[in-house]
Amino acid sequence: MKNLIFSLSATLLLTSCAGVHVSDTQVASGAANPEAIYIRPFDVGATQYVGNHRGGIGERPIRQSLAGREFADDLKQELERLAPSRVIEHNEVPTVGWLVEGSLDVVDGGHPNERGVVPLDKFGFGKSNVAIHVVISKVGGGYVSTDKDANKLGQKGRVIYEFDLVGGSRGSGHDGSIYSPGLGRSEPFDFRNAAERVMMAMSTDPHKYGVHSSPVIR
Questions:
Q1: Which residue intervals of the chain are DSSP H helices?
Q2: β-strand 97-108 against 48-50: which pairing, if any?
Q3: Upstream peptide bond of 119 is cis (omega within 30 degrees of 0)
Q4: In angstroms, how far is CA 164 from the centroid of its own chain?
Q5: Per DSSP, which regions of the chain are E strands?
Q6: Using one digit for the tens of pLDDT, what is the confidence trace for 123-155?
Q7: Would you say the pTM of this structure is higher than 0.90?
Q8: CA-CA distances (angstroms) from residue 154 to 27, 47, 117, 158?
Q9: Going by C-beta distance under 8 Å and a sequence separation of 6 or more, which residues neighbour residue 85?
Q10: Hey, CA dihedral for 58, 60, 66, 70, is it positive or negative?
């Protein structure tokens, strides 16, 4: 019985943590070490932009129109850990490095008031949700696939990575954390979590776990 209670508690703890993860990968080429990274503001033309957002219902179209650029700015700050990064306009075309673009499919801000109701907040009431499609292409130079399925690996169009992100505040509660807003607005947290996940996905060792504090092998 104790083991069952412990397992249930652990499950609730893990499922209540806010964050964003990769839900599906369509293209994975193994490309690494870009010379530079360019980020184009993500498409928001078909975004399901719902829930609580800054400015209320009247300002929602403005906030939606700026959401793609807001996420691009977060991506720039995170991807600068991998290579020099820059946000470019839609009419700009980079000639070297990687181009990161995509679409914001769902930006649901949830409902802060519902997140403040104890204990319902722990079960995800009022939670926020995001769904983001990410496409990363290699521009300039040459990328040659040795795989027979060239379309899958992205040889056409030089797509080297393509994947979907999902996540949100989940049941993180009214207090919030560094990853979740609590009673505040969730969009900045969800965008930052998603941008960090893109950086983590593109990194071979983002936290430098393989670096030893001593050169001596024990």
A1: 2-16, 56-79, 112-115, 150-153, 187-202
A2: parallel
A3: yes
A4: 9
A5: 19-28, 37-39, 48-50, 85-87, 97-108, 129-139, 159-168
A6: 667 788 999 999 999 997 544 444 444 444 434
A7: no
A8: 6, 25, 47, 6
A9: 36, 37, 38, 39, 75, 76, 79
A10: positive
